[in-house]
Structures are given as C-alpha cells and as structure tokens.
Amino acid sequence: xxxxxxxxxxxxxxxxxxxxxxxxxxxxxxxxxxxxxxxxxxxxxxxxxxxxxxxxxxxxxxxxxxxxxxxxxxxxxxxxxxxxxxxxxxxxxxxxxxxxxxxxxxxxxxxxxxxxxxxxxxxxxxxxxxxxxxxxxxxxxxxxxxxxxxxxxxxxxxxxxxxxxxxxxxxxxxxxxxxxxxxxxxxxxxxxxxxxxx
Length: 198
Known about the structure:
By secondary structure, this protein is an all-alpha fold. It has helices at 8-29, 36-42, 47-50, 57-80, 88-100, 111-120, 129-140, 152-167, 177-192.
C-alpha cells in the first residue's frame, strides 16, 4: 500500500493535530508509553504515515516543545497589543504562565525522557547557558521595570529550579506547595523587577 499524499494545507492541519494529540498522550501516559502507533491512531493515520511527518519519536516530542514555545510567544505578542513593553503586572503573570502553565509538556517529561531526547537529537536543538541568557535578555527587554543590575544566570537558575519543582511535585509537601511557590515567585520577581514596581 502506497503512503497517503496530502497537499500542503492538509499536511499542516494533520501535523498540528498530531502535535496536539501527542501532547495529550504524553500528559496521559508519559513519553515512554506514548507510542508512534498511538499518535498516528489518534489522528486516524497508520503508523508508517507518522514517519512522513516526523523522522523519529524524539523529533516529534521536540516539535511539541517548539510548538508550545511558539504559542507562548504569540500569547506574549497578544499581551503587548502593539505596545513596546509589557507593564509589570502583566509581565509577572506571563512569567507565571511560562513556569507553571497547565499546557507545559515539561510537567510530563521525566529526567530519563530528557536524557533520551538529548541522546537522540543534535546538540543545537538545546540551548546552552549563554543562549538561554540571550533569550532572557531579549524577553525582559520587552518588559517594563526590569532591574538594571539583573543577573541573568541567577534568574535562569531560579526559573529552572521552579520548573524542577513542577516536574517533581510528588516529592514535595503538597499541603505547603502553593505557599512555597508564592515565596519562590516573590524571590524571582525581586531579582527581575525594580523594587516597588507592581
């Protein structure tokens, strides 16, 4: 049986459906138990057709991550609504959304999953510390009230620690998790924004 052929528009629609289905499957089963077959079946395709869209499962998961980053940046542009810089209250809410978004795939990836992705994908797919700092500086450059002496590496570490807390919430005290996160936000925001900016 020859592989299905799709025009560009239909192909893009199917690709988006596959990414969404893949996210939902990873959320439900984790990366290890989300098979290529499950993804293809979720959008009404055969397993072999999956490989017409993505060369590997790891590349597919990476594309989900890229898609979610793109959606976040589109949301950021919507918040800006033509302004040069995002006001501090909205900037803080946006940062919370980045860290603890209900739609974050990182909540459902284990350290083993991340190792598999790093082993299977080219190194340039992953940001190093300096690249992360440059991305942060560009993002914060579009926000009001940023401290002139902000330490990008310190802020980057705090963001990663908060992300790790999200990934490993089962290891934390559930009864004080919300209070803990509030304190972490206070610390993070005090390192990013000028004192007294709301």
